[in-house]
Each structure stands twice: as structure tokens, then as C-alpha cells.
Amino acid sequence: MSAAPERSQELNELLEKVRVSPQITPEGPGYMPLYCAAYWIATKGGTLQIDPRDLEVWKRPFSQLLSRISSDEVAVTGLREGQREKIEGHIFAGISVDYPFADTPVELLLGRELYLSSCSYVDDEHWRKGFNDSLQTRHGCKLSHLMVLKSDVLRHWPFSSPENENSATPLATKTGAPGRPSSMHLVEREYRARRDRGDTKASIGEEAKVLSEWLRSTHPDAPRLTPKTIANRLRREHLMRKAQK
To answer: Are residues 126 and 193 in the same domain?
Structure first.
């Protein structure tokens, strides 16, 4: 019996497992598998159906995700000898990718360069047993179980999740309150992420300018917010945070 039918059967079984398995989303605290972040981007938050076997489906999502990682806009960690560590973003700049559901290119298997090997997520047990994203060379795995920070992913790709897809208001302008749509929830999330990273400015006025520009450049279709509006909303929280230091 040839290997091709066996490979096809294994792939079909894996596709079925992925199809029925709930994917981890970037909503909530913590980290998520790198593949799940690429899947979130490729499916626009799970609202689009894709054929995972189509290589073209993955190229743009991985390119976007790795660009953000390489510029330190999305934090990434991995396991080295059983210990989790933060990985410097520049390692992912221009890195070659062994895409999920595809055979590993020969040039990666035989080459000298570090490359990203991405593996589809089925469930936590499957992931922990070695079916996960990793950094590889021809000599073997260097870092495994790659994960990215959920809040970073959601900040850059704030798609509606399937449970919200019937809403007429996109996630980028959804407030949960009646009245005019606002982007303030996006700004508040980014402010707290910056605070957790230790990146906030001492002055709320300066911080509000940074956040206003961030909203304009990162979410160009979202309603604009002036620095003054942002400062008024976040002033109390900013002062309380400074007082706790």
C-alpha cells in the first residue's frame, strides 16, 4: 500500500478533528497557541469558513502575525527544556514558515536557518503531547509550545466572535450601552495593556495623545477619540494607579 492514501486519510481525520474542536480565542486573560491566533486572523474571529489545506489561506494571517511579533507588538513565549521563557520578537523577522496541513518544504528540512513549524490545534492534550507550534532547525526543535498574549492579538485583530456575529454593531464600536457607538473600550484595553507592560506616560495628557494616535493608526475605521476625551475618561484610573506605586 502506498504512503499517499495513508497520508490523505490521516489528513482528513485531522481536518475533521479540527473542524469539531472549539478553537481558543483571544478573549479573556492569558496566552493562546500561536496557531490559534493565526486561525483567528484567517477566519476573522471564526466568522469565515476556510479550507485549511489551501496554503494561500495561511500566508497572509501568518505574515501579519509574525510582523507584529517581530516588532514586539505581540508578546510570544515558548518552552526550552521544559521551562517557559519570553522569546525576543526579532527572531521572527523574515522567518520561514512550515504552514499547518502542508508537507514541510525540503529546503527547510535540509537548510541551516531557523524556521517556524506550525501545527493545528485539536485540544489541550493533543497540544501538550507535541502537536504544537515550534521553532526548528534541521538539527531539531529549539523552542516548542509557542504561545502569544491574547490581549495583544485582540488589540490588533478585534474581530467579532461567532456568538456576537448576529449583532449589527461591529466589535470595534461595540460598547454594550445604548447610544452612539464609541471606541473607548478599545482605548481602555490598550491603556491597561500598556500599563501592564510598564509603557504608560507619567502625564495623562501625554498618555492620551499616544492612545489617540494608536486608535487612529491601528483602527482606522473606528470612531475617533480626541486626547482630551481620552484623558477625561482615564484620568481617575491613571491617578489611582500612580498613587499605588
So the answer is: no
